[in-house]
Amino acid sequence: MLKLLIFDWDDTITTGGGLDLYARCYEKALNSAGVMPPYDQVKALVFELWGRTHHEVLSSLLATFNADPALIDQVMDNYNKSLVEEEFLSHITVIPWVNEALEELSHTYILCVASSGNPQVIKNHLIPRLAIPPVFAQIMTTNDLDGQGKGKPFPDLVLKILETQNIPREEALVIGDSKSDLAMAQAAGVSFIAVLTGQLTQDKANKLGIDTVLASTAELPAFLAK
Fold this sequence. Notes:
By secondary structure, the protein is α/β, with parallel strands linked by helices. It has helices at residues 19-32, 39-48, 54-64, 72-82, 86-89, 98-105, 119-129, 156-165, 179-188, 202-207, 220-224; strands at 4-7, 14-15, 93-94, 110-115, 136-141, 172-176, 191-195, 213-214. 44% of the residues lie in helices and 14% in strands. Strand 6 (172-176), helix 9 (179-188) and strand 7 form a beta-alpha-beta unit. The longest helix has 14 residues, at 19-32.
């Protein structure tokens, strides 16, 4: 019996915070420390490491561009600051009808989030700014792993949620928009539904062998009611 729904955040609940926007934030953080790499190379590496912790991504960027690894604290601080600036937040919107879907789903299921994003940005900025209903029992991000686990595509985020909510994996479902979301769910032994509001297309989903594909999270209540 399905009890727990675990959502990715970017391009599953909200949109606008995709690869380009995050890559620009990483580039800005590097530039602030005097590291001036070509943007296309930054974007390519961010895509390759999509879903990993921000610390992992920034450490890899510093190493790739032969920068001093001691700069990591400075670039991390500047990266986190960029996530709460209007330049970033103004691009983020909630996917149409997802707020209503979340409200409806919360009457039947436990709702949680597994995200590589900054938890304070989600909780203190995006949820109130976008009037997202306060329906999440747990918002688990890579920041919450405290060095005791890895981000996507590893299963740690999902496993931590299962442990905290005391729900067996057979009674949980992951909803996401990317290959890394799928890999995370598979590694945790949890069923997966893809939504086509982010990185995955129907063709890519088919090639990955994903059985259930929805146009948007907004379609989830009707699908689960069948």
